[in-house]
Every structure is written in structure tokens, then in C-alpha cells.
Amino acid sequence: MARIVEHRSALPFGPVVEVHVHHDAERDPPVHATVVVQSFGQSPDPNVFPQRLPVADAFLQALAYAEEAGIACVWIDDPYGYFPPKKRPARDTGAALA
Q: Around Cβ 33, how many Cβ atoms within 10 Å?
């Protein structure tokens, strides 16, 4: 099971799924996310999540991908707190990729 890490200093060595939350007033909705799979600064699979996603969808897809790929950690990069834990969906992540 993948664990969620809030702080970069807690990241393990090896592959990590990263959810980067962004704010862009020009977009609708203005808060969105990108998901990246990283391993020591290199993306092992740059085409996994090529598009911006609604934040809740990005979160669920990142967790599901991490669990399917055997990646132990999902890092939430949300420096301005747009997607705090109380806003994150709590449901079966296996359904996100189905």
C-alpha cells in the first residue's frame, strides 16, 4: 500500500509518484494538478500522466498507479494548501483506474 508524504524530506530513495497542485487564474477550474513519476530526478515513465487533472482525480490516480506499480510513496506537493487532507477523497483507489 502506498503511503502519502507531505514533506519532501520524508521521500525515500527510489521511484515516487508526485502530485503537484497548481493555481492558474486563467483556467477553469483555477486549481488543478499534474502527476509525475520520478526516480532520483529522472522520470521512468514520462507519458503516464501527460495532462493536467482535477486535483481529486489526480490524487486518486496517483495512489492507484503507485499501488499497481509497487511504488511505496506518493508525495503531495501543495505549498499553498489548496488540497489539504480534509479535502482529499477517501474511497477505493482501485476504482480510479478502472
A: 25
- Residues 27-41 pLDDT 10s: 777 888 888 888 766
- Stretch (H or E) spanning 69: helix 55-69
Residue 58 domain flag: yes
- What is the domain count for the chain? 1
Give how far Cα 40 sits from Cα of 15, 16, 19, 75, Å.
7, 9, 16, 14
Query: Would you say residue 17 lies in a domain?
Result: yes
Q: Which three cell numbers stand for residue 7?
A: 514533506
Q: What is the pTM of this model?
A: 0.76
CB 59 within 8 A of CB 83: yes
Residue from 29, 32, 68 nearest 48 by CA: 68
Q: Chain-centre distance of CA 29, in angstroms?
A: 18
Look up the domain containing 64 and give its range: 3-89
Distance CA 22, CA 73 (A): 20
